[in-house]
Amino acid sequence: MSNKGVRWYDRLALSFMGPPQVGDLSAPVREIEQPVRLCPTCGISYDAHEVVRDPRLTWTRCPEPQPAG
Ligand SMILES: [Zn+2]
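# zinc ion complex -> structure
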């Protein structure tokens, strides 16, 4: 699409969508909490796992279960 076609499409989109809604530019940055990924096998976070890297395959090794109490 040529530059003229892009400008035509921008004018068309602006006519029914309006300007982009970017929100308040002076608003404070929100901290987004990252979800903790849990291992489906042992239910412990992947951070506690050992990553085993092999030239052909990479996998994670579950940590030893902690004794209760
Ligand atoms: Zn695991």
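# post-check
The chain has a mean pLDDT of 89.
The chain has one helix and two strands.
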